[in-house]
Design goal:
This protein is mainly α and 81 residues long. It is built from four helices and no strands.
Length: 81
């Protein structure tokens, strides 16, 4: 089974596959939220659109804020007793 776009093509823009997953997930979330707020239907799934943006060179890890936001970090902490 061949995957398109190829992982080597994606890794040319984002060299670390774990960072690639993070970047694609964050961009897919942005695409989904924008489509929901505008009421615009998507022709493909948000993850597919985000992967194609990376493959086309429109998206790389330099412009993404990959740190956990404080509100997200608060939700991930264990409750203190």
């Amino acid at each position: 089974m061949m995957l398109y776009p190829a992982m080597t093509q994606l890794n040319s823009y984002i060299p670390n596959r774990y960072m690639l997953v993070n970047v694609v997930a964050r961009r897919a979330r942005q695409i989904s939220e924008a489509a929901e707020s505008s009421g615009e239907p998507l022709c493909e799934k948000p993850v597919t659109l985000a992967i194609h943006e990376v493959a086309d060179g429109k998206l790389d890890s330099r412009g993404m804020n990959l740190t956990i936001a404080e509100s997200d970090a608060d939700q991930q902490r264990m409750p203190q007793e």
